[in-house]
Amino acid sequence: MTSTNGEREPLLGTTQRTSPGGRVSPPKTSVVERHRRAKLSSTEAAKKVIKDQLSSCCSVEAVKGKFPITKWLPRYNLRDLQCDFIAGLTVGLTVIPQGLAYAKIANLPPQYGLYSAFMGCFVYCFLGTSKDITLGPTAIMSLMTATFAVSPVKDDPTYAILLCLMTGIVQFLMGVLHLGILVNFISYPVINAFTSAAAITIAFGQVKGILGLKNIPRDFPNAVYETFKHIGETRIPDMILGLVCLVILFVLKKIRQIKWKDEENSDPTACTKIARYIVWLSGTAANAIVVISAAGVAAAFISEGKNDTLTITGNLKSGVPPFKPPDFSLHDGNTTYTAGNILSSMGSGLGIVPLLGLVELIAIGKAFARQNNYKIKPSQELIAIGVANIISSFVSSYPVTGSFSRTAVNSQSGVRTPASGIFTGALILLALYVLTPLFYYIPKAALSAVIISAVIQMVDYKIVMTLWRVNKIDLLPHVVTFVASLAIGIEYGILIGIALSLIILLYPIARPDIQVDNIGVTVVKPEHGLLFPAIEYVQERVLKENEADGRSNSVVIDCSQVTAVDYTTIQGIMDLILDFERRKAKLVFASLPAKVLHHLQDADIPHLMVSFSVQDGCKLIQEELKSEFSNDSIDGSASGELNITVTNVNDKL
């Protein structure tokens, strides 16, 4: 690209350095420009950043953002109170039997399911941004607790409570530091496979409760083997009660889903509305109805002196747990387990449990926000669940998160604000004060039926065909996660699935697609950028094109897809330039974005040739080679060291 006076024009709109051989280097920043960029000292810049952050954090809007209750409470009215009261009590009827059952999954006494169910409701009322979400024990969090908080003392909650505290701290810090983006690196196929595998593990783990079997291990392969091995020891009364409870739960939940159809231009009467509401409430409170009925059956047997007919829950500690910090040590006879021992035994659970809690919460929050036409703030949700877990650990809770089933009940009950959690929490506290002695009669088969009924709907088999049609490669992490979770444990399955999905995600970066065109000059175009995982591969491909046809070909690298470079990339570019110089060929980097060009300028790469476009790069190589060919063609032909064919590219561009 030349001007009328024979001088080469700048290819990027700035003055270029031209060496005696005509090689073009990127423009150097002037001393004035460098001083202009650095006129703010690092100290002044730091002060400005700190000042801006403090002013933004201490503003009224920032405080309201951290306490969403300040936004909806001033508009709260009597109608909101009525709707929240009904929704809160309805959710309470659901969470009480679920909490008792989920504590079994966590390998804790049943009352710890209720200890975990009330404090999160109170905290979320002040800090949550979703009107629908209810916090409390869930099947997944219970299974994670049983997996990572394994106490050497039977029924001891120390490990579980400390896991709750650490989970809350990690989640709170992630919310403050806006690290919720980490959740986005767990792909949906991995989450779906993990959830399905966890649901199957949980459901099959409760078969022992339905059959009245004892001493069945928790891990899935051994549980399957031992269950079938001891199937002959089945307690018939427990099995009959468990199966009946499962059928009743199925029927009642189907009743809740009935969609009533009225004739056009006619409204149902008040009696019809009341009857429909009773039917819906019966389906919503199905767990409570089944548990209470089963407890009545057990009490009837005991009153007749048949104490061993059904396997019952037994005595529970009554009352509300004391508000105190979690214990950081555990004494078992002459052995003392310190905080370091306990935390080290949790291992990867300190990362997996908080992340899974966030995944559940954000997924549920976004789903119901879309359904009910409002928005949630993910970072604030992380802060809310973090604080909820931290404070819940002071009342002997294990890790909690949002519950999909109870959130659905809350939404269908007409909830208006997060205040419904206050009524749910109050009902749970009332149950702890008043109803604990009655929990003695609840049969274990009924609790197992509640768990199976709740988790079996989490198994998603339809996604397999969807992934096959949409993107078959996503089936790989899905299948691997599912199989690994069942075969070697869900704690390893989720890690393997995340690692595999990240490899699939990063592979195109490390091995980018490279297009090669020949328009008189070879043009190489990396399709996925040029960062350190890819630089060695790109070097090999460029050198391969340089050696094509047994000649030393000049190459233009189309950098239009290169959005960033790092130090390894710069080193690779230097090596490529040296390789091309040794081979007496030309290498031009074309279409560099401005930001990338500035990085290369600052690196001061020797003999770097750049051009505004691929066309300009091809013309530049043609002009360079014409000049050298006219001076060196005789020597090159005599020695046989260089064989360059220069083609006029203008007709091919």
Automatic annotation (TrEMBL):
The chain crosses the membrane at residues 85-105, 111-127, 134-153, 159-183, 190-211, 239-256, 277-302, 350-369, 381-401, 421-442, 449-470, 482-507. Residues 1-10 have a biased composition (Basic and acidic residues). PROSITE patterns: SLC26A (PS01130), STAS (PS50801). GO terms for molecular function: secondary active sulfate transmembrane transporter activity. It is found in: Membrane. Residues 520-605 form the STAS domain. It holds the Pfam family Sulfate_transp. It comes from the Eukaryota. The keyword Transport does not apply. It is a multi-pass membrane protein. Its main location: membrane. Residues 1-37 are annotated as: Disordered. One of its GO terms (cellular component) is membrane. The keyword Transmembrane applies. Keywords: Membrane, Transmembrane, Transmembrane helix. InterPro entries: S04_transporter_CS, SLC26A/SulP_dom, SLC26A/SulP_fam, STAS_dom, STAS_dom_sf. This is STAS domain-containing protein.
